[in-house]
């Protein structure tokens, strides 16, 4: 696609630095042109032909980069943010979270998800992967907020086959009804909760359905040492080996956490090209452990960064999560050279897109890709001097430094403000619903 002189474009971003994440990688005085939701020019501003733009943005002092991809969350859990702190994973789930979730209504999930969508947009996330109940309510929030998402209706059995059947049936309906919704911004996957909360027969059925419908599987894997030990006692193999044995592993599987892995498990993930969602903040907060991401990446496993639900994080700001993603690996391996800044920025953007099978559509600023672009304002005291773009983004930038957010060529955040929703209404409605839930 070549941009010609006099051509009309929908959006022109002028005079910014651009972190493209493709081979050009960093352009200091650049320009980006967008037409029909796609990027049609990226390069030096002085090489840009003279074009007519419906909307032009002067982005001097800003850095354009691909939007962040949050590859594992349960976004409606914003409603539980700040509840049930300082507890280990199993007790946190069973005593606090699951009883509260049993009371959720469709409207609760919608407003909780919408609150999370506003937070994600304002902090530069343009795409997320989610798994929860009433996922059609999350889909509505995605549609209303303008975000892009890979959504899965959660499947959970908890030794109650009828519940497994029912949630599996709901998830089949969800996959059929919402794939391609929100003008193509929504993809649907299957979301079996975990190996310990679904029977092997149910997991086999999910695998068959995913292959038949050509959609992915999003699952929690090797997150709890307690559950891993129980499964080992029962089956004599690890969770990862068990999933391989029953044929679930594949390149369309996104496994969140992957903390308790043997060398053999890591090899299996590589062999089947399973994608990994790394959630360092949630893992640290629940006192679990740090996932062996360096070793997985050395093997060639594709890894993205997730926040996990906002009840165990408690932030959806991917800049903070990206920073901790690097720090946790350096600590785990007691090695400052592990997880350099360029690698971690890639993990939060293009790497995340790869974990969702969307790398041909998003994850970098390249001609032909969707215009999912954020502009970070580098004219801030904590971002001076500007020696190194990756170092500033990983260690000094906050989500609140994001000035403009564009998805599919549409400006959703400008000067840090939400353009498409009534932010005050979303906050008050979500808070009202959260307070009502705990008083029920
Ligand atoms: Zn999770």
Write the layout of secondary structure elements.
Layout: E1 8-19, E2 26-35, E3 38-44, E4 52-58, E5 62-66, E6 68-73, H1 89-101, H2 106-122, E7 125-132, H3 135-145, E8 148-155, H4 161-178, H5 181-184, E9 186-192, H6 200-213, E10 217-221, H7 225-235, H8 239-245, E11 253-257, H9 263-271, E12 275-278, H10 280-285, H11 293-299, E13 303-305, H12 318-333, H13 341-355, E14 373-377, H14 389-395, E15 402-407, E16 410-414, E17 417-418, H15 423-439
Parallel strand pairs: 1-4, 1-5, 6-7, 7-8, 8-9, 10-11, 11-12, 12-13
Antiparallel strand pairs: 1-2, 2-3, 5-14, 14-15, 15-16, 16-17
Helix pairs in contact: 2-3, 2-15, 4-6, 12-13, 13-14
The site of zinc ion has 6 residues, from loops.
Summarize this structure as a short list of keywords or feature phrases.
Urease, subunit C, domain 1, globular, alpha/beta, 2 domains, single chain
Count of runs of 4 or more consecutive helical residues: 15
Rg calc: 21 Å
Can you tell me the CATH class of the largest domain?
Alpha Beta
Strand content: 15-25%
């Amino acid at each position: 696609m070549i941009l010609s002189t006099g051509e009309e474009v929908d959006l022109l971003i002028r005079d910014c630095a651009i972190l493209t994440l493709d081979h050009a990688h960093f352009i200091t005085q650049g320009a980006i042109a967008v037409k029909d939701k796609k990027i049609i020019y990226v390069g030096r501003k002085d090489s840009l032909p003279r074009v007519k733009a419906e909307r032009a943005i002067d982005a001097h002092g800003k850095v354009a980069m691909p939007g962040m991809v949050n590859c594992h969350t349960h976004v409606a859990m914003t409603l539980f943010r700040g509840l049930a702190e300082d507890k280990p994973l199993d007790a946190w789930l069973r005593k606090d979270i699951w009883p509260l979730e049993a009371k959720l209504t469709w409207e609760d999930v919608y407003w909780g998800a919408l609150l999370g969508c506003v937070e994600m947009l304002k902090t530069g996330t343009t795409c997320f992967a989610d798994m929860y109940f009433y996922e059609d309510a999350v889909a509505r929030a995605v549609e209303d907020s303008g975000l892009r998402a890979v959504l899965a209706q959660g499947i959970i059995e908890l030794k109650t086959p009828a519940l497994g059947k029912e949630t599996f049936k709901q998830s089949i309906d969800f996959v059929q009804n919402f794939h391609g919704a929100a003008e193509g911004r929504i993809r649907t996957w299957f979301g079996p909760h975990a190996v310990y909360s679904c029977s092997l027969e149910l997991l086999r059925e999910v695998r068959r359905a995913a292959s038949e419908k050509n959609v992915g599987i999003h699952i929690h894997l090797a997150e709890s040492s307690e559950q891993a030990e129980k499964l080992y006692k029962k089956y004599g193999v690890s969770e990862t080996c068990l999933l391989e044995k029953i044929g679930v592993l594949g390149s369309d599987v996104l496994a969140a956490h992957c903390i308790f892995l043997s060398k053999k498990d890591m090899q299996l993930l590589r062999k089947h090209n399973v994608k990994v969602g790394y959630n360092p903040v949630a893992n640290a907060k629940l006192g679990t452990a740090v996932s062996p991401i360096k070793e997985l990446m050395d093997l060639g496993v594709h890894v993205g960064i997730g926040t996990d639900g906002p009840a165990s994080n408690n932030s959806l700001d991917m800049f903070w999560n990206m920073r901790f993603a690097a720090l946790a690996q350096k600590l785990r391996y007691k090695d400052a050279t592990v997880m350099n800044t360029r690698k971690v920025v890639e993990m939060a953007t293009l790497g995340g897109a790869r974990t969702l099978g969307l790398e041909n559509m998003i994850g970098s600023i390249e001609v032909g890709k969707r215009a999912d672009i954020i502009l970070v304002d580098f004219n801030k005291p904590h971002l001076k001097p500007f020696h190194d773009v990756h170092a500033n983004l990983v260690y000094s930038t906050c989500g609140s430094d994001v000035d403009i957010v564009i998805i599919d060529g549409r400006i959703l955040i400008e000067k840090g403000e939400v353009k498409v929703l009534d932010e005050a209404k979303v906050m008050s409605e979500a808070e009202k619903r959260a307070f009502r839930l705990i008083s029920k």
